[in-house]
Amino acid sequence: MGRGVVDHGMPSVTRDGVTIDYAVDGDPDGPTVLLLEGLGYGRWMWRWLAEALVDDYEVLRPDNRGTGDSDVPEGPYTVAEMAADAAAVLDDRGVDAAHVCGASMGGMIAQELALADDRVASLTLLCTSPGGDDAAPTPPEVQEHIFSAPEDADPRERVRYLMEPAVSDGFYEREPELVDRIVDWRLAGDATPAGREAQAAAVAAFDASDRLGDLSVPTLILHGTADRVLPVENADLLAELLPHAEAELFEGGPHLFFIEERERVNDRVRTFLGEVA
């Protein structure tokens, strides 16, 4: 029987007047894995990977500022601020070394944290970007879709509409029960509208491209080839910029490929952590 994961009623740490709530699961004597979620998403996003890791690792899942049980300070935010929040979580747990996994905006936070904090022992970067002039941006029509639901949509319809570009075309039909649960989790634990807007400003301003050559940590880059939110060209760019990185592509995978193809992704991340932890 696995240890399972818990999403609420967990510890918190306050940095510069902003309280960051985080979940702790798994083996307190195992290596620490820090999971950082994407723009607007609550820590529910990692429940599958967390469940795959808890028997062997201590798993930390903060809610980014603006999200879930964490505070929603006035924006705009910066990725550096959110990386400092993540470092405060490591401080609060007394962590000496952490394997950091981030998806989308969380991957940007992970890069920034690794650049600022020598406790980062490895990086796993999913569907993310280094930012900068050479990065492949979110196409304008996708940007519009993920930030502007129809005015007459009810809350559940709004969540489904905003998420459409991040999933494959048949996902809602293939796994309707899972989609309903995701909508529940998003309504309960995602960022507030103000938090989402403040996080979006952080993503828009992020650029680590000229600093990544300084990183010496082993890095696994995973990306879906059909990612409409952050195009797959960003995986190749990250692999070029990071000295000790390998990129693996999931053919046909959407932005949320780590949910749609969760068993494959979880197995690959476990294998990587087994090599570096």
Task: Kindly summarize this structure in a few lines.
This is Alpha/beta fold hydrolase. With 277 residues, this protein is α/β, with parallel strands linked by helices. It is built from eleven helices and eight strands.
Written description of the protein model:
One of its GO terms (molecular function) is hydrolase activity. InterPro entries: AB_hydrolase, AB_hydrolase_1, AB_hydrolase_fold. It comes from Halorubrum ruber. Keywords: Hydrolase. With 277 residues, the protein is of the alpha/beta class. The chain is built from eleven helices and eight strands. It has helices spanning 47-53, 79-93, 105-116, 140-147, 155-163, 171-174, 176-189, 193-205, 233-241, 257-260, 262-276, and strands spanning 12-15, 18-26, 32-36, 58-62, 98-103, 120-126, 219-224, 245-250. The longest helix has 15 residues, at 79-93. The protein is globular, with a radius of gyration of 17 Å.
Q: Counting H and I runs of at least 4 residues, what is the number of helices? A: 11
Name the overall outline.
globular
Q: Which whole number gives the mean pLDDT?
A: 95
How widely separated are the two ends? 23 Å
Multimeric state = single chain
Q: What is the helix fraction of residues, given as a range?
A: 25-40%
Show unreliable segments.
Answer: none
| Series of H and E elements | EEEHEHEHEHHHHHEHEHH
- Going by helix content, strand content and strand pairing, the class is alpha/beta
Largest sheet: number of strands, sense, barrel closure: 8 strands, mixed
What spatial order of strands do you see in the largest sheet? Answer: 1-2-4-3-5-6-7-8
In percent, how much strand structure appears in the residues? 15-25%
* CA radius of gyration: 17 Å
Please report the total strand number as a whole number: 8
